[in-house]
């Protein structure tokens, strides 16, 4: 088992409320090979300056803001967000084809001018939503997996680099998209951790075997007494 190679496929979610906590975690994980995710919570407290500090420590950064608005607004906003030098950013697939296509174009155009083009991916269905909630609360009649696959196919057609999808849908997404299409999977829980508020979860190895490209892991690492040790223990079967 090549732990370093596996760590490069891990995105650690810095879901904390301030710079100090984020930097403590980042320093504990520095040199491990993993990515870091700056989500809505951390970004709300620290803004783009946090991204630049984390980049300075050598981490690839996934800016997870799940943009979802009319196409023009998302296109203009995404050009601003990537000025901070992020390596990956996302939008909601449910924003539709035009929104995704214009986002992909904006990222490529603006990124080229900066000398580095980030990956842009689409959120399918949040991993906190169960099959029952999907049908009863959201009123969608087709199966959740079928819905995720159709959104992934639309995202690829629109020019996105990949999607965010549960590991439970990863196999079908992989089967229905090109080999290089990215599948970023949240809700990863090693066998020794709790599921918390995630509904559709798998272990790291199960997710990789299902076709996931990157694994997003939060609390099992960030709330551990030793985050670096917890990262390494992801790969203990």
Automatic annotation (TrEMBL):
<feature type="active site" description="For OMPdecase activity">
    <location>
        <position position="66"/>
    </location>
</feature>
<comment type="subunit">
    <text>Homodimer.</text>
</comment>
<dbReference type="InterPro" id="IPR001754">
    <property type="entry name" value="OMPdeCOase_dom"/>
</dbReference>
<dbReference type="Pfam" id="PF00215">
    <property type="entry name" value="OMPdecase"/>
</dbReference>
<protein>
    <recommendedName>
        <fullName>Orotidine 5'-phosphate decarboxylase</fullName>
        <ecNumber>4.1.1.23</ecNumber>
    </recommendedName>
</protein>
<comment type="similarity">
    <text>Belongs to the OMP decarboxylase family. Type 1 subfamily.</text>
</comment>
<feature type="binding site">
    <location>
        <position position="219"/>
    </location>
    <ligand>
        <name>substrate</name>
    </ligand>
</feature>
<dbReference type="GO" id="GO:0006207">
    <property type="term" value="P:'de novo' pyrimidine nucleobase biosynthetic process"/>
</dbReference>
<dbReference type="InterPro" id="IPR013785">
    <property type="entry name" value="Aldolase_TIM"/>
</dbReference>
<dbReference type="GO" id="GO:0005829">
    <property type="term" value="C:cytosol"/>
</dbReference>
<dbReference type="GO" id="GO:0044205">
    <property type="term" value="P:'de novo' UMP biosynthetic process"/>
</dbReference>
<feature type="binding site">
    <location>
        <begin position="64"/>
        <end position="73"/>
    </location>
    <ligand>
        <name>substrate</name>
    </ligand>
</feature>
<dbReference type="InterPro" id="IPR018089">
    <property type="entry name" value="OMPdecase_AS"/>
</dbReference>
<feature type="active site" description="For OMPdecase activity">
    <location>
        <position position="69"/>
    </location>
</feature>
<feature type="binding site">
    <location>
        <position position="218"/>
    </location>
    <ligand>
        <name>substrate</name>
    </ligand>
</feature>
<dbReference type="InterPro" id="IPR014732">
    <property type="entry name" value="OMPdecase"/>
</dbReference>
<comment type="pathway">
    <text>Pyrimidine metabolism; UMP biosynthesis via de novo pathway; UMP from orotate: step 2/2.</text>
</comment>
<feature type="active site" description="Proton donor">
    <location>
        <position position="66"/>
    </location>
</feature>
<dbReference type="GO" id="GO:0004590">
    <property type="term" value="F:orotidine-5'-phosphate decarboxylase activity"/>
</dbReference>
<feature type="active site" description="For OMPdecase activity">
    <location>
        <position position="64"/>
    </location>
</feature>
<feature type="binding site">
    <location>
        <position position="15"/>
    </location>
    <ligand>
        <name>substrate</name>
    </ligand>
</feature>
<feature type="binding site">
    <location>
        <position position="127"/>
    </location>
    <ligand>
        <name>substrate</name>
    </ligand>
</feature>
<feature type="binding site">
    <location>
        <position position="198"/>
    </location>
    <ligand>
        <name>substrate</name>
    </ligand>
</feature>
<keyword id="KW-0210">Decarboxylase</keyword>
<dbReference type="InterPro" id="IPR047596">
    <property type="entry name" value="OMPdecase_bac"/>
</dbReference>
<dbReference type="InterPro" id="IPR011060">
    <property type="entry name" value="RibuloseP-bd_barrel"/>
</dbReference>
<comment type="function">
    <text>Catalyzes the decarboxylation of orotidine 5'-monophosphate (OMP) to uridine 5'-monophosphate (UMP).</text>
</comment>
<feature type="binding site">
    <location>
        <position position="189"/>
    </location>
    <ligand>
        <name>substrate</name>
    </ligand>
</feature>
<keyword id="KW-0456">Lyase</keyword>
<feature type="domain" description="Orotidine 5'-phosphate decarboxylase">
    <location>
        <begin position="9"/>
        <end position="234"/>
    </location>
</feature>
<keyword id="KW-0665">Pyrimidine biosynthesis</keyword>
<feature type="binding site">
    <location>
        <position position="37"/>
    </location>
    <ligand>
        <name>substrate</name>
    </ligand>
</feature>
